[in-house]
Structure formats: C-alpha cells, structure tokens
C-alpha cells in the first residue's frame, strides 16, 4: 500500500523542491530590509508550519485511533509526531541562525514566537520516552493517543496565545488583513510550503512503509513458529511433521518483501 | 541591524539549508538501513523455508 504511493510522491517532492530552490535563489527578489539573509524565510517558515500541522494531524489520527481502536491510526499518529519533532529541530536551528544574522543573537528569550515554539518542541520531546516506557502495546497506543490529542490542543492554544501577545519583534509576514509580501515572494513562499509539505508526506509514507513491512515480517515469523510447534506436537503424537507447514507462509513473506521495497 | 553583506549572509543562508538537508539525509539513511535489515531478515526467512521444503 505504502510502497505504491511512495514513488509518485518522491518524484513530486523532487520536482517541487527543485522548483522551489530555483525560485528562492533565482526568481524571488531580495528583501529591501534584510537582504540575502531573508532567503532563510523560505525554509524556516514552511518548516515551522508543516511541523505544527504535523502535530495537529497526529492529534486527529490519535482521535481516530481511540474512536475506531484501529492500531494503524496510532502508528500513523506516531510517525507524524516523530517527523514533526525532526522538523521542529530544523525550525529551532534555522531560526537561531536567522536570529543571529538579523538580530545579532542566537536566541532571544523575550520573543514569544521563539519561546512558544521551544515549549511545543519540549512538550513533544516527552512523547517518545512516554510511549516506550509502556510495555503493553494496547496501553502504549492508548496513552500515546491521549498525549497526541492533548498536544494538538496545546499547539492550537499556544499559537492563538502568541498571536494575541503584544511584543512583535518577530517578523510577522501574515496578518489577518492579508500578507504584506510582494507577489513574487508570496508565490515563492507558497511553492516552498508545498515542497515542505511533500517532503513531510514522502518521509511519512516511507517510515510507515518500513513499519508496516516490519510488522508483517514479525507476524509471518510468529505464524511460522506456531506452525513449527504444531508440527512438532503432531510428530510427537505419531504423525510425521509436514514439510509444507513452513512453505505455507512464503506468500506472507513475499508480501512483506514487496512492501519493504 | 543593517542588512549583512552577501559574503556574510551567504554563510548563514548556506548553514540553514545545509542543516535541513542533513536532517533529511540522516533520516532517509536511518530508514534505508532499517529497510536493508528487513530485506536481510526476509531472505533468511525465505532460505530456511526453502531448506524445510527440501
């Protein structure tokens, strides 16, 4: 399932990313105030938006898991959180680089956008230790889902609270009255955002494919072990173990091979 | 602060893009290693199946 979607997604990601890079460096005008350093904006802001949307999507998937009890939604939510955390690291690092270049400091504690993003990141940094500290798979999935839903609600609250804050040292590009970018910059930003969303979707599909293949392999192994035990028991009862008992599972294993590719 | 000259700004911009690229590449490398391990395990499983059939 995931293997089939991966190829077109990866191709689309490569094409849109190439277009975005070309537009960023050869088409978008230089910012009159910040100059060349503003090119970081096309990377930093889309990454932040996609990371926050990833946290929200993880919350929705977690809610679907609790509603349907389908473990696949939990895995999807887990991968979305995982990827968003990685993007959040990128946001913090690129934000620091941009801050140093334009404000002269690596970090500004009085800036609500920076600090609120750091708090969101630290909150989600707890997700993995919490998840893997629970052995029982069912409980692990339920607790992780509750965390993801609470985290998503916190992300929304955090965003709203920061928008309502008074200090505006952070560059505010989009306002309620509309953006204040020249059209070329805006189009470049939209393409960069699309590229970042595609990167997220591709990596999400890639990791889900690997997780699904690993799960199928584990299940095939378990089934094989069970059949071997049964064959042994039948052998002890005077019946000869069937060689085909193992061969029966090759289709499952073959299916795993397809998914892992 | 006034805009930085291109030589200085270029280093910061390059650093930011390299960080992003490195994050994506490390992530893909980790997943590729996992998939490689899965394929190895799968071929082991297939080999033992073939032995049992024989």
Stretches of chain A where pLDDT falls below 50 for ≥5 residues?
A: 240-261
N-to-C SSE string of chain A, H for helix and E for strand? HHHHHHEEHHH
Strand order of the largest sheet of chain A: 1-2
Which percent bin holds the helix content of chain B? over 70%
Q: Give the overall pLDDT of chain A as a whole number.
A: 84
Task: Say how many strands of chain A there are.
Answer: 2
For the largest interface, the chains and their residue counts are:
A-B, 47 and 31 residues
Q: Helix segment count of chain B?
A: 1
Strand content of chain B: under 5%
Question: How would you describe what is shown here?
Answer:
The complex is a heterodimer of chains A (261) and B (54). Chain A contains 9 helices and 2 strands; from the N terminus they run ααααααββααα. In chain A, strand 1 (174-175) and strand 2 (178-179) form a beta hairpin. Chain A is an all-alpha fold. Helices cover 89% and strands 0% of the residues of chain B. Chain B is rod-shaped and about 75 Å long. The termini of chain B are far apart. The A-B interface holds A 31, 33-37, 39-40, 43-44, 47, 86-87, 89-90, 93-94, 97-98, 100-104, 199, 203, 206-207, 210, 213-214, 217, 220-221, 224, 243-247, 249-250, 253, 256-257, 260-261 and B 1, 3-4, 6, 8-10, 12-13, 15-17, 19-20, 23-24, 27-28, 31, 34-35, 38-39, 41-42, 45-46, 48-49, 52-53.
């Amino acid at each position: 399932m995931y293997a089939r979607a991966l190829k077109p997604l990866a191709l689309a990601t490569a094409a849109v990313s190439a277009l975005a890079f070309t537009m960023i460096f050869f088409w978008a005008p230089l910012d009159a105030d910040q100059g060349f350093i503003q090119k970081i904006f096309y990377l930093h802001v889309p990454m932040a938006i996609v990371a926050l949307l990833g946290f929200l999507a993880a919350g929705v998937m977690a809610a679907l898991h609790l509603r349907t009890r389908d473990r696949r939604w939990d895995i999807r939510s887990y991968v979305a959180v995982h990827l968003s955390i990685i993007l959040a690291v990128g946001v913090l690092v690129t934000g620091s680089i941009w801050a140093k270049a334009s404000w002269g400091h690596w970090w500004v504690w009085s800036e609500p956008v920076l600090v609120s993003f750091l708090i969101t990141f630290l909150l989600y940094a707890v997700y993995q230790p919490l998840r893997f500290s629970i052995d029982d798979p069912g409980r692990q999935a339920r607790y992780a889902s509750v965390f993801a839903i609470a985290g998503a609600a916190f992300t929304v609250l955090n965003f709203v609270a920061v928008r309502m804050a008074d200090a505006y040292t952070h560059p505010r590009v989009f306002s309620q009255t509309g953006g204040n970018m020249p059209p070329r910059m805006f189009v470049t930003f939209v393409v960069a955002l699309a590229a970042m969303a595609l990167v997220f979707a591709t990596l999400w599909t890639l990791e889900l494919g690997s997780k699904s293949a690993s799960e199928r392999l584990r299940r095939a192994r378990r089934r094989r072990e069970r059949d071997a035990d049964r064959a042994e028991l039948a052998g002890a009862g005077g019946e000869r173990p069937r060689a085909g008992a193992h061969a029966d599972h090759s289709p499952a294993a073959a299916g795993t091979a397809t998914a892992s590719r | 602060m006034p805009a930085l000259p291109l030589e200085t700004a270029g280093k910061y911009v390059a650093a930011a893009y390299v960080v992003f690229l490195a994050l994506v590449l490390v992530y893909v490398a980790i997943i590729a290693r996992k998939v490689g391990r899965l394929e190895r395990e799968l071929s082991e499983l297939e080999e033992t199946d073939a032995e049992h059939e024989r």
